[in-house]
Amino acid sequence: DAKDLGGNRLAFFSPHMTEVLTERLRVEAGLRHAIEHGGLRLHYQPIMDARTGQVSSVEALVRWADPERGLVSPLQFIGIAEDTGLIVPLGEWVLNEACAQARRWLDAGWGEIPVAVNLSARQFQEPDLDRVVDRALQRTGCPSHLLQLEITESSIMEPVEQALQTMQRLTSLGVQLAIDDFGTGYSSLSQLKRFPVRKLKIDRSFVNDLGSNDRGEALVDAIVALAQKLGLRTVAEGVETEHQAQWLARLGCDELQGYLFSQPCAPQDLENWWQGRVAGSPVGITRGSAAP
Ligand code: C2E
Ligand code: MG
Ligand code: MG
Ligand code: MG
């Protein structure tokens, strides 16, 4: 409380703090309303197989369709959702919607398209996460092998034994796990081999450094080598240039994701993108121009 800050109570009533708090309360109220009244959207970004050039999966990324501000980026509300606990109902909505979409693509004849869903640290710590995931799969009829869950390094840090159990309960449902933003956290490399994960997603910052400095190449090279030793697949995030894509493929990175291929977009736009490449099916797609 205020006394802990040396009794400087004024700090709590500065106009700036009031503004920040007011804004947070506004976001919280708006977000709560959006969760309950259909104000959230999922966009999907394709992830390409570096070897074949085919789409290997898509990542679901949440947006908030705010009547005044338009589509709001998750960077502007996921943190607040975590602090307020709204991440729990929000995360459940995302899981349900992503599973429902995978099922719709299956039913519409697009084939089996694995969908990756991001989990926040707070969701990962919810004791009934596996039941929430299972319920989403059952309710939507999404085959469990089509659901991938992305967990950041920081959420699996402590306590490691508990994280391990959570991951085991999830994989026993048949879903696959990936570590997101790999290289930016502090996950212990010695623990990594104990985790039942299938993929490491190499953070965008390293991909960005490729070709502009040696550090980038050394780090990507090291992560790919480590992953190969552990039998894990690697996905590079934030691939924006053909040059980066070639570099990553040469370093042995398995999958590529970024604006070079497509921005995250609404399901209908993604379907148009698929259609525009090879008539009818996302299978057999090769690299081309970015979607709108
Ligand atoms: P992330 O999981 O690492 O997702 C990748 C982010 O990089 C996405 O940002 C994507 O639009 C962006 N991106 C993809 N390709 C490129 C590229 O070539 N260049 C650049 N500059 N950026 C690229 P987005 O959609 O703004 O999401 C940001 C973060 O918000 C995500 O990072 C994830 O941590 C979080 N997030 C998004 N959706 C959800 C969700 O449903 N639940 C939770 N818990 N977190 C989410
Ligand atoms: Mg992700
Ligand atoms: Mg990421
Ligand atoms: Mg990231």
Automatic annotation (TrEMBL):
Domain EAL: 24-278
Domain of life according to the entry: Bacteria
Protein name, UniProt field: Diguanylate cyclase (GGDEF)-like protein
Species whose genome carries this gene: Acidovorax delafieldii
Residues of the full protein shown: 512 to 803 of 803
